[in-house]
Fold this sequence. Notes:
- By secondary structure, chain A is an alpha/beta fold.
- Chain A has helices at residues 42-49, 71-77, 93-103, 110-121, 137-150, 167-184, 195-201, 219-224, 241-245, 267-278, 291-299, 310-321; strands at 2-13, 16-27, 31-35, 57-62, 65-66, 78-81, 106-107, 155-159, 187-192, 204-209, 212-217, 229-234, 250-256, 259-264, 283-287.
- In chain A, helix 3 (93-103) crosses helix 4 (110-121), helix 3 runs parallel beside helix 5 (137-150) and helix 4 runs antiparallel to helix 5 (137-150).
- Chain B is 73% helix and 2% strand.
- Mean pLDDT of chain B is 88; it is low at 1-6.
- Chain B is mostly helical.
- In chain B, a hairpin with a 2-residue loop joins strand 2 and strand 3.
- The A-B interface holds A 47, 50-53, 72, 75-76, 78, 80, 82, 84-91, 95, 99-100, 102-111, 114, 131, 147, 151-152 and B 1-2, 4-11, 14-15, 17-19, 21-22, 25-26, 29-30, 93-95, 97-105, 258.
Amino acid sequence: MAVIETSKLTKRFGKIHAVDNLSLKIEEGEVFGLLGPNGAGKTTTIKMLSTLLQPSSGRATVNGFDITKSPSKVRESIGIVFQEPSSDELLSGYENLKLHSMIYGLQGGQVEKRIDDALALVELSDRRNDLVKTYSGGMRRRLEIARGLLHEPKVLFLDEPTLGLDPRGRETMWGYVKRLVTELNMTILLTTHYMEEADELADRICIIDHGKAVDVDSPDALKARVGGDLVTITSSPLPDAKLLRKLKFVKGVEKKDGKLLITVDDAAANLQELLAKIGKVGCVEVRSPTLNDVFIKFTGRELEQAEGGWFDKIVQQSVNKQ
Amino acid sequence: MTDDMRMAHPSALKGAYAVWWRETIVFFREPPRIISAIVSPIIWLVIFGAGLGGSVSIGNESYQQFIFGGVLVQTFLFSSLFYGAYLVWDRKIDVLKAVLVSPLSRSSIFLGKVLGGVTIALIESIIVLAVGHLIGMQYPPEALLTVIGLVALASAGLTALGLIVGSYMESPEGFQLLGSLVLFPMFFLSGALFPISNLTGPLGIIASINPVTYIVDLLRGALGGPYYLDPALDVAAFIGFIIVANIAGVLAFERMKS
């Protein structure tokens, strides 16, 4: 059963199509990632699905309820972790969850236990009575997760859950999200512009750009679209591209920034032969395709152009090591 | 979901209670809010009332006694309106979004907010009444219940008005304007500091359509002072204002964007 289904969902702000004819089907128990650069329409999509924003056209259902016809049924079915933390700084972690349980009409003797469990899940039990303003950014995000799942929603929306967290905080957060999936079997819609995050967490990914779905598939299937492993050669002069294209395992050759980018079928098996053909090289880099390569293939642009700094590289490296 | 725990569509009252609960806790954790709300009326009463009162008396009352009712209104007028408009701050720090995305109805969020504003107004007003007593203001003890009831009702109307303003405000930068363009005129042209019979022409007209005028007159009367207007008119305007402000407030909340 599809828990979330959108059909030509569209949101226009003036002339800009923030979300453009988006049609998705998200199955129960799935972690579905919306991956795209800033401004691609991810948050707008979440806002429409959580009934905070009216679509301009198209339709969508969440847990079987139409987002425009039964918004309050939709709101009961979802939990949401916003991009900007929305917990109350002047309340303690416990009080924030208590407030949430009252707002969602949770009743009965299990409420306190549920709050304890949620705090334990995100490892905030020892800080439960401290005001949220004393929490670090990562702790606030974790509290938001605890709050989002307190009423056991059918679907949890995570909007850029690790934005602004340091690499360690990010990895901890991923751990919690994975636990939600394995322990609570939640359906999760995750938006991110970090490819490694989508890769790590999502069962299926929709690559989104300028409000349009570029492609939807599992991370591995998407990466397979690149057509092979990537070998980057630095040497002077650069080897002859034509000669290399004749090799049957070479899928593509491209010059970029004074380097030669070669797409190769099964680099592990064929690297020796490739290098023999090239002869003397300055430097060789071999790597598997990333979702960024997929994004470049479809859009001609880098996914994380704005943030390709040292910070993201460190995160990327630490993830790739695992 | 376990058997003894269920998620019901929260009733309007329980939802309102949850919102009120949050507002009250947050209020007590921001001491500057209480202090700023009660310091300025007390300064008016002590300095202005005593200073100007040396050379002025109105009717049979000392000037200080005359403005006591007005200063009490000032306490919850500023507190309730600013509290309501504070909604824009909730929006800025995204606390509001978490409530708007919940199954709570807009009217129950509104009710909770109004009850929060009333609670805060009552706490502050009781402090001002006590301080007034200490510095020699006279009021019949048996009038206290009526006074407190009037404060609660009046602050419900004024909080609703503030919430309407807050629901339309885009950013907290308009706060200063709210004070100088709305609140001070409402306060000065209400008979709080001098009888509105002193006002003629356009200012008199403004005073007569200003809901605070009737709140001041009713409260001054309830505190044992003379009525400067027809009490029946006061009551009608008072009740009318509270009803209109709250209906308009619910409507403003229903249409409010997240």
